[in-house]
Amino acid sequence: MKAYKLKKEYLKEYLKSLEDFGEVWGPIKKGEIDVYEKITDYSLLNLNALRPILPLKKFLIPPKFNTFFYTKDGKYENALKEVKRKIVFGVHPCEIHALLTLDRLYKERYPDYYYLTHRKSTWIIALSCVPDDKCFARSLNTHFVEEGFDLGFTDLEDYYLVWVGSSEGDDLLRHRLDLFDEKITSKDLNRYIEWRKWRDNQYQLNLDLTAMPDIMELSYDLEIWNEIGERCLSCGTCSMICPTCTCFNIADHLGIDDEPGRRERFWDSCMLKIFALVAGGHNFREKRVDRVKLWYTHKLKAFITEFGKPACVGCGRCIANCPVNINVAEITKILKGEEVKK
Amino acid sequence: MDKEKKLKIGFYEFSGCAGDLLTIIHNEDYLLKVWNSAEIISFRLATSKRDEKANLDIAFVEGSITAEEQIEELRKIREKSRILIALGTCASFGGLQSMYSHLGDFSSRFNSIYPHKFTILKPIESKPLESYVKVDYFIPGCPIDFKLFLFNFTRLLRNLPVELPSYPVCIECKWQENNCLLLKKIPCLGPLTRAGCQARCPTHNLPCVGCFGPYEDLNLPSWLKTLQENNIPFKELEKKIRMFFGVKVKEILSKLKNKK
User: Fold this and answer.
1) CB–CB of A233 and B1 under 8 A?
2) Mind listing the pLDDT tens digit for each residue in A104-142?
3) Helix or strand holding residue B80 (H, E)
4) Which of B33, B166, B190 is opposite residue A257, by nearest beta carbon?
5) Fold for domain B8-157?
């Protein structure tokens, strides 16, 4: 991976120049939160954003989209033919780990046309971050990333160290090579090493998740889950904002008069009662507590069995967004019998 | 479809603001398509041409029942319709006009507002259609969401059952990338309310008021607890639930009492 340097004062000019490749997206403030948005005014870009409310999955499998149209004479028409290229700036390592997880699901295991089409057109510019009290990526070893981005920016105070992660990234960089400095000195190396050490120690939330698969198994029928089940609002927020939740439902919108029908795909959540309802009226997870258990079992246990690592990347979105404070940190602490702050 | 016989459909209204039928009329791009795809037997807000004797495949009925005379009228519609649909929150749950139905005797409440002799109709406590006749499907909303109406209208034309979002407003709210108002301890009814509105109010930074009626799997104790812990009194929260949940309030609150 070749590295370059970019002076901070050139950042906005450089990003703007990338509009030659496609739309430039990045985190923008919306009230108290951040959202990934198409950037038109580069002064609005929030370089300190930690977790845009909807993660990268919103680009790859949007919350709601048409898959195809159909007409009365039995003809079908694909609804997703071309996607405008998006260059997403400001993506943090934990989110890229989540992206790699989605890739394994929707690129490798179950190649999904819609995912692949969006994925091809979504280029990623990673940006290093300094954690807040909700980040726990270090506990999951997702606080650094070696793949899954086209360009990677590391913030070293007055300049960025820019890593080239793919040939597309190389194209992006060469587009304005004049802004970059190719010469990396031993001073830069030392600064980088120092920065990594410093940044590693900035995590205030550290969870020991190593025994979680066993603990999930052992706790499965225990009373402690009931209080969590009673607290859950079944609002589904956790599944919407989690970067590795990708369940979906489909609905056919029948045409009216001469209008074609369309099949719509939209995000679903295993936290909803209807999710495990099957024909004949049986519901596998009728009780709220069973649904909460399933969510956490899937994230912290089942996924490891299947993919060798948990489905949690430590981004802290569940901590920031659950209205009744049910999240990976809280669950881990409750199950391990550690003190829980409420 | 063209060769098949068009379904006979009627639109009727009882007590309410007519907002649900107006929602259909105000979507001009679709009004003719709605008209072309069925035989409209009655739609007083849209046409004076109507046939009150014909049997109907589907009757869409908006508004709640607030007068004795309306009960008879509703029964007549029921008798001549294969499928009867409660359209909007008034028809489904009783509407705003049933908000205070728990506060003692109806006639004393009525007389305090209308002290003079009232002779047009014989007024009674506001109740949803279901209190008097069998309702096949509900399409709630105050007013209804046109997209949700159209989705179900086209299903009904093909003899498919009505399908409502089986999730709360919060799901659509997250799709709109809003920060949760409950996190700021603002009593938002999102997690208690059925989706279908595209989370319109929270998207404008206003708490959900529950106008689509209750979400079937709502967790009231936890919702109350999280707000009461922040010094919002039960009475205030109860009032918010009563605004749109109509006759469903009793059922929801009784579960709460059983718990305690």
Assistant:
1) no
2) 999 999 999 999 999 999 999 999 999 999 999 999 999
3) helix B68-80
4) B33
5) Rossmann fold (3.40.50)
